[in-house]
Amino acid sequence: xxxxxxxxxxxxxxxxxxxxxxxxxxxxxxxxxxxxxxxxxxxxxxxxxxxxxxxxxxxxxxxxxxxxxxxxxxxxxxxxxxxxxxxxxxxxxxxxxxxxxxxxxxxxxxxxxxxxxxxxxxxxxxxxxxxxxxxxxxxxxxxxxxxxxxxxxxxxxxxxxxxxxxxxxxxxxxxxxxxxxxxxxxxxxxxxxxxxxxxxxxxxxxxxxxxxxxxxxxxxxxxxxxxxxxxxxxxxxxxxxxxxxxxx
Length: 248
Ligand code: NAP
What we know:
Layout: E1 4-7, H1 11-22, E2 27-31, E3 45-47, H2 52-62, E4 67-70, H3 77-90, E5 94-97, E6 109-113, H4 116-122, E7 128-133, H5 140-143, E8 149-155, E9 170-174, H6 181-191, E10 195-199, H7 208-216, E11 219-223, E12 233-234, H8 237-247
Parallel strand pairs: 1-2, 1-4, 2-3, 4-5, 5-12, 6-11, 7-8, 7-10, 8-9, 10-11
Helix pairs in contact: 2-3, 6-7
């Protein structure tokens, strides 16, 4: 009998959970538990890490998982790498769903960099107000820049742990996407934002800040996705459901 593990934590995973539920497919939705608030998916859920590759292998076997769908964020590279390894060990099919990366368009002022250290290094030395639209996990690289810059940091919920950026230089904006173009333009104007640092997440839900930057002619430091080993991939929930229909 088909029993799917859906690795989630994204809006697309939420959509997929509804699709699986509506199709009457037995599945469980897995969260890391990284945020305090989360959307309620249509599927039964489990929360928290598996305990590395070995823990995930054990879980797949214990729960008689037949297929794994990895709909985690493109920057959640560790769990995706673990899923590749664990599915290979157990011998079950894995599909990764990732929206295509955004491409720079005419009018965009992007500096593309490989990682957060390079993003911090790419900020101009003469200061300014920087919108960090990168979550809270990889802020340490920007701490060394904090003497020069003021940061506006957007996160999904209030931090439990202190941030590595000094409070005097860092303003928190608590909000969950999807975000609208008008709202992003208003946010940029309200906070006097001069630079944007963004992960190249792809997809429509967080793209409005990139469109806003284009309209306002602001520079964007765009961080490329981490590299992962080869795996079967698709781009949309529709394609993911088609893959499952064939794989079953
Ligand atoms: P990560 O670095 O790839 O994973 C770190 C550890 O968290 C993994 O080794 C795993 O622990 C656990 N984990 C991650 N996703 C999990 C899931 N869906 N179910 C169970 N355990 C999970 O991930 P991350 O960048 O911290 O992201 C955490 C979650 O937030 C992901 O589910 C991702 O989809 C979501 N998210 C991330 C970003 C981002 O920019 N990174 C943005 C939006 C949403 P064990 O090794 O113990 O199994």
